[in-house]
Amino acid sequence: MLDPAMPEEANKDAMRTPVTPEKASNNDHPTPAMTTVNVPLVNEVQLTAATGGAELSCYRCTIPFGVVVLIAGIVVTAVAYSFNSHGSTISYFGLVLLSAGLVLLASSAVCWKVRLERKKERRRESQTALVANRRSIFT
């Protein structure tokens, strides 16, 4: 029974949730149902058709974002260090912005170089095909 000297026990009984029959008889854990999803492979032509060719212009959009983030990083870092707040949150934020701007510009340069190499490779392939076709015509 409830003891008037022990009011905590009444609270403990009131705080307990009743056990549902599902929880009481759930001694063995059922295995979860697994579903597999097949992800279709997409080639470059399908990707170009779906995106309108935007995947080939990554350097075009990362350059402006990189420049803007780099300028913001320079400004935030300059403001932070002009107030001698070395090691503060704003100085770290400025350094992160500077780093992100440099990474964006570097990635756009890498994308641009890769695109130029692909263009050169396509030109070489087409010239090789033309030369081979010309030889087959004359022989």
Automatic annotation (TrEMBL):
Q: Does the keyword Transmembrane helix apply?
A: yes
Choose any GO biological process term that the UniProt entry carries and state it: cellular response to BMP stimulus
Which segments show compositional bias classed as Polar residues?
23-33
Q: Where in the cell is it found?
A: Membrane
Ranges that cross the membrane: 63-83, 89-114
Alphabetically ordered keywords of this record: Membrane, Transmembrane, Transmembrane helix
Q: Does the keyword Repeat apply?
A: no
Name the Pfam families for this protein: TMEM100
Coiled-coil annotated spans: none
Q: How does it sit in the membrane?
A: Multi-pass membrane protein
Superkingdom of this entry's organism? Eukaryota
Region spans: Disordered: 1-33
Give GO cellular component annotations, separated by semicolons. plasma membrane
Its recorded name reads Transmembrane protein 100
